[in-house]
Amino acid sequence: MEWKTDWGLRGRMGFTMFLLFALYVVFIGVLIQVFNVGIIFTLAMFGMFSLAQYFFSDKLALRSMGAREVSADEYPDLHRRIERLSQQADLPKPTVAVADTQVPNAFATGRNKKNATVAVTTGLLRALDEDELDGVLAHELAHVKNRDVMVMTIASFLSTIAFFIVRWGWLFSGDNRQGAPVIVAILVSIVVWVISFLLIRALSRYREYSADRGAALITGKPGALASALMTIDGRMDRVPEEDLREEAEMNAFFIIPIKAGFVGKIASTHPSTENRIERLRELEREMETA
Asked: Mutual orientation of helices 222-236 and 179-219 as an angle, nearest 10°?
């Protein structure tokens, strides 16, 4: 089943990425002026850092979650589902990983379609029925198909550098020769980090809607993903606080974000579960009348 492209959603994503690009161009220009370094040197340094982030972000994500690659002998049903859904999505079968945690969640990582991993938690496998699990796995495969991990990694690259300057720049601000330039760089980095923080989270929310649409297309069952979202959201309240705190840093990758108080709500990487379910119900009605 196919439907018309959501140009409103694509337009919002494109505009957000344009704002990020413009912000980062200004940021690079300020750093070059402040530290009086050549643009070639600056771009080379940024390039090396971005390549390291590009090639190793997936391994860091899996390690931070305590997820490990599992074989078809260990989780035969999970492998069969992902293989079938990958064929339906016209994707190579990704690596399959499982994290032993009560938090019912899933995420995708990897730099491209051929080097992707779909990870689920043991809590998720216990919580969902067959159709719901397919919906969640299809959502993660839609992220892979849309290259969302790569997009979000690139989008957050200079934001990460700005964060490091803010965090560690004060160590060099006492140097008489570098003090003033470093302070200027720190102040600019604070502004860049705050603005990019909000833009990246807006971009992440838009891409979640897109992945929901992709999952509905892959499975043909928008209602199954809507049901899974309700189940997962309801189960989050039963997870011990220490488990939630340990995994809150992975919010951008999860199928449902971990709600870490007031700040977690206003800076969420995901739309509200209610809004996602409402859109999925609309897709379900659209498919029924097509």
From this structure: 130
Structure tokens at 122: 């043991």
State yes or no: is 278 an active-site residue. Answer: no
Give the pLDDT of residue 204. Answer: 86
User: Using 50, 70 and 90 to split pLDDT, how confident is the model at 248?
Assistant: very low
Whether 191 contacts 30, CB under 8 Å: no
**What integer is the mean pLDDT of 93-118?**
91
Alpha-carbon distance of 260 to 268, in angstroms, equals 9
Instruction: Give the residue among 214, 88, 93, 206 at the shortest CA–CA distance from 146.
Output: 214
Sign of the CA dihedral running 27, 163, 263, 8: positive
Full DSSP string of the chain: ------HHHHHHHHHHHHHHHHHHHHHHHHHHHHHT--HHHHHHHHHHHHHHHHHHHHHHHHHHHTEEE--TTTSHHHHHHHHHHHHHTT-PPPEEEEE--SS--EEEEESSGGGEEEEEEHHHHHH--HHHHHHHHHHHHHHHHTTHHHHHHHHTHHHHHHHHHHHHGGGGTT-TTTHHHHHHHHHHHHHHHHHHHHHHHHHHHHHHHHHHHHHHHHHS-HHHHHHHHHHHHHHHTTS-HHHHHHHGGGGGGBSS----HHHHHHT-SS--HHHHHHHHHHHHHHHHH-
29-55 burial, b at 16+ Cβ within 10 Å, e below that, comes to ebbeebeeeeeeeeeeebeeebeebbe
Q: Active site residue: 2, 74, 83, 140, which one?
A: 140
Residues 288, 36: Cα–Cα separation, whole Å: 62
Residues contacting 46, CB < 8 A, separation 6+: 28, 157, 158, 161
